[in-house]
Design brief:
single chain, about 210 residues, mainly alpha, 8 helices, about 0% strand
């Protein structure tokens, strides 16, 4: 189950990374590299933290093949450049949901409790997107003012981690947990919802 979640999440995130590369007019090497960085980044961070070394991203050929295929598919079949931003957002939301759940469940399997598993699931979900945006010269989504990104990831990861702690079957829990993150993220983008931001008072008088 975890392998399937990981590979599907890698493929979806790889497509989002490839679309960012296409929009930035990178060549085929740039598209594949950005797809791999996006698809594998969060999982590598997770595996290093929990001690699953060497990470499957470098030890299992499937983890390398999937983002390469995702990058190549994106390179050859990408939509018109003017419509890429919306497509990137959708694929990124699906990757976020799948990865935060997979990260939380794998952390649970390595003996972490629900709270650290949820936190690590969130890191798994946002890690690839941060690497993608930094490589593409963009401000990472998670750091944009009021952007609802990490909070939906944490919510989905928390549901997955809590369910695993209670003994709920991973197959029954994965889709609803990922759905919470995906749905929340897409609704936030569509409706303009924002994360809480500090209220700044008037500037101090000068002089």
């Amino acid at each position: 189950m975890l392998l399937t979640l990981d590979l599907v999440g890698i493929f979806v995130f790889a497509i989002s990374g490839g679309l960012v590369a296409v929009r930035n007019q990178l060549d085929i090497v740039g598209v594949v590299v950005l797809a791999m960085a996006t698809g594998l980044g969060g999982g590598v961070i997770r595996d290093v933290v929990i001690g699953a070394v060497p990470p499957p991203a470098v030890a299992d050929w499937r983890y390398l093949l999937v983002p390469v295929v995702g990058g190549l598919v994106t390179f050859w079949l990408h939509p018109a450049v003017g419509r890429l931003e919306r497509v990137i957002t959708v694929f990124d939301a699906f990757g976020l949901g799948l990865f935060c759940v997979a990260g939380a469940l794998k952390a649970q399997e390595y003996g972490l409790g629900p709270a650290p598993s949820a936190a690590l699931g969130m890191v798994t979900g946002v890690g690839g997107g941060i690497i993608r945006d930094l490589l593409a010269g963009r401000i990472p989504v998670i750091f944009r003012f009021g952007e609802l990104y990490a909070i939906p990831a944490l919510a989905g990861a928390a549901i997955a981690a809590t369910g695993a702690e209670l003994g709920v079957d991973h197959g029954l829990m994965a889709a609803p947990a990922a759905g919470v993150t995906i749905g929340w993220r897409l609704l936030a983008v569509h409706r303009g919802w924002q994360a809480p931001v500090p209220r700044l008072g008037p500037p101090p008088p000068s002089g």
